[in-house]
């Protein structure tokens, strides 16, 4: 098996979401065949909820024992619980809310109305990760990590030309003065994301084309943070045709 980055292109956003959902269900079934539980990192942004809604719309999702799946988030916007702009709330509305799973299976970041300050909230989430740590890791061994990619190449809440992408001594960081609202956020760090067995980027739209093209052409993680992320076993970019317009043809596997 090769761990080269693969780019799978789909004609449009709808077919992209359906294809990723189908692969997710199939891969989870495989994983749960050999493991007691699976750990999945979810993303926010334009594709996070869209993919989860497609999972929920697929009749095949009922073949998964969701009580054996743990859900984490790659980042969160520092907003009150239940705010429609929170990544966990968007996931709940899209799909998680309809699942009958133990509360302990979902691991949302603390909210801004939790009574915690931002720094303390990062520590609380780090402790939650550590409580599920295995193999000497201060976090779970993530089976699948979904990441969206911003038009500027940011992933999770790790933005270009900031020191956050370089942090390697913590699992969770508070983010302040984010260039994208809201200004305060929480994010997993690069080493945690890169410890995932599989990283699945999902991105659609012409505004993502430049960042994706740069990342695949060898730009630095400082310039486009997405360039610094790679799964241990697999790294796949699931994209639509618009987002793929600046990807070198030699890297593209057309999925239709
Ligand atoms: O704010 C965020 O943005 C990124 C990318 O979102 P998109 O809407 O440009 O696709 C997302 O991955 C992240 O989880 C979110 O907090």
Write up what this structure looks like.
Residues 12-235 form the Glucosamine/galactosamine-6-phosphate isomerase domain. GO terms for molecular function: 6-phosphogluconolactonase activity. Its EC number is 3.1.1.31. Hydrolysis of 6-phosphogluconolactone to 6-phosphogluconate. Pfam families: Glucosamine_iso. With 256 residues, the protein is of the alpha/beta class. The protein has a single domain (5-254), classed as Rossmann fold, CATH 3.40.50.1360. 27% of the residues lie in helices and 18% in strands. The protein has six helices and ten strands. The strands form two sheets. A seven-stranded parallel sheet has the order 3-2-5-8-9-1-10. Strands 4-7-6 form a three-stranded antiparallel sheet. α6 links the parallel β8 (198-203) and β9. The longest helix is centred in the N-terminal third of the chain and has 22 residues, at 13-34. The chain is globular, with a radius of gyration of 17 Å. The ligand O=C1O[C@H](COP(=O)(O)O)[C@@H](O)[C@H](O)[C@H]1O binds next to α2 and β4.
CATH class, named Alpha Beta
Quaternary status of these chains?
Answer: single chain
Q: Outline the biggest β-sheet.
A: 7 strands, parallel
Structural class: alpha/beta
How many helix segments?
6
The spatial strand order of the largest sheet comes to 3-2-5-8-9-1-10
Strand content: 15-25%
Bound molecules: the ligand O=C1O[C@H](COP(=O)(O)O)[C@@H](O)[C@H](O)[C@H]1O
């Amino acid at each position: 098996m090769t761990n080269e980055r693969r780019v799978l292109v789909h004609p449009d956003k709808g077919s992209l979401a359906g294809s990723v959902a189908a692969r997710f269900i199939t891969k989870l079934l495989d994983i749960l065949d050999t493991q007691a539980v699976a750990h999945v990192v979810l993303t926010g942004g334009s594709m996070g909820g869209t993919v989860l809604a497609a999972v929920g719309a697929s009749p095949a999702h009922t073949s998964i024992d969701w009580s054996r799946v743990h859900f984490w988030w790659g980042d969160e916007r520092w907003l009150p619980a239940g705010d429609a702009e929170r990544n966990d709330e968007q996931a709940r509305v899209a799909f998680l809310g309809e699942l009958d799973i133990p509360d302990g299976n979902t691991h949302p970041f603390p909210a801004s109305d939790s009574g915690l300050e931002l720094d303390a909230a990062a520590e609380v989430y780090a402790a939650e990760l550590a409580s599920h740590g295995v193999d000497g890791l201060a976090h779970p061994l993530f089976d699948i990590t979904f990441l969206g990619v911003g038009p500027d190449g940011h992933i999770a809440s790790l933005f270009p030309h900031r020191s956050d992408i370089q942090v390697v001594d913590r699992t969770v960081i508070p983010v302040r003065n984010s260039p994208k609202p809201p200004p305060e956020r929480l994010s997993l760090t690069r080493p945690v994301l890169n410890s995932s067995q599989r990283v699945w980027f999902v991105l659609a739209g012409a505004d993502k084309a430049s960042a994706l093209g740069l990342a695949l052409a060898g730009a630095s993680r400082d310039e486009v943070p997405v360039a610094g992320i790679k799964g241990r076993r697999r790294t796949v970019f699931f994209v639509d045709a618009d987002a793929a317009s600046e990807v070198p043809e030699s890297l593209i596997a057309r999925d239709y």
